[in-house]
Fold each of these.
Amino acid sequence: MSKLVWFVLLLVAVSAIVAESTLENDDKGGPCGKFSTLRILTHKLRHCEKAARNYNVPPSVQCCRDLKEVSIPCLHAVFSSDAFKKVGVDPKIAITIPWRCHHIHH
């Protein structure tokens, strides 16, 4: 399948998971639990920056390892946050990182 089809399927899956788990995360303070999206971006996803800027740059092992510790709803919140946009990362590329981690490091 083309990359566009995979991207659309990924977006549909992420949207479904986010919609389903919204109620689940309300008691923890938000989609990222007790942490802000900025803290997740600067502490957990800092190793993913190059891969989030350029589709041709493979995500590092550390990026993929850190990504496993971030829930899908939190990841979605980070990707749609103002902080994420301010660092100049392309959300269309960043959303592909979980898929790229799976295919590169498995």
Amino acid sequence: MDLNLKAFPDPNTGAQWKATVVDRGGELLCVSQFTLFAKIIKNKPDFHKAMPAESSKSMYTTFLERMGTLYDPLKIKDGRFGAMMSVALTNEGPVTFTLDSREVPGTASTGTSTPTASASASKGREGADKLAQRNAEKALRRAAWEAAKREKDGVEVANSNEAQQSATN
């Protein structure tokens, strides 16, 4: 959810990697990828590590709401969660960016912006806003992960209890 990624050329000079989607007033197309998280095992997709549907839908809805608070909601587009969709787009340029929100505990994330003592008030406020945004995103990811874990553990416990009951009958 990095609206500060400078992926576009400066509209005045044409210099590469100088403008954000916000700077350009562009639209965002958000496409959920939760159900596409698969590992290939014996030439078949295995979706066991994908986030459960209810948890991922909740997280995606929260993500869209957060995007709407950070940017013009009229410029944020999305499809129907979990639906079969045909998405057409035109990529401009020879690069593809993959933004992965997963973080390894105890490591610093790339793109962290922390204000320094010598920063101006506006730069310090901007840095504090980014830090608050990152903390909110971390809390969202953590809550979704915990919900998915509880849901998965609940299913495993229920399946284990059913197996024990079948064995005793």
Amino acid sequence: MAQRDYYDIDDILAGQERVPCILQVDLDGLGSSGSGTASKVQRNARWTLPYWMADRLDEEDYVTMEMSPMFAKRATRMYAASPESVQLRAICQYYYQFGMQLGNIVPDVLLVLRNMYMRRIQRVAHIAQQGHNVEALDFVQGLDKMELRMLKLCQQAQNASTVWQQNKAYTLGKASAMSL
């Protein structure tokens, strides 16, 4: 079972991403026959479940989790070819956090995340230093939550550096005890 942070809202929301699963047991009363009566769900039926639920059911051998389509081989090849052009927000707002949760099960996902993050974060830092333009705006609109947080931190650091270079960061003044 993947280790998650109980109090981190982003971690909770990342766990809501759906993953394909194959049912390993027959379930009575959970299906719908269309006439309003409950029916039996057969073994080997395909379901899409939230990751937090699928992870636990997989551990108990009720389902077998399959790889999420956003981390399938075809998708990861596309990400590797041009990571800067991928609109992560359209794929999953919590792409990196969800990937880290999956990485506890499938270690190859962590390598994909690392390579993609290292290439994209350079562009994020460059945008924070140089400012926005039309091309940068398209890129920024496709950032996931973690990258947006990093962009804000880079911008704050850039602003603090500018203030410090202009000698406006700290000013000495007369102590209040001296003005009596």
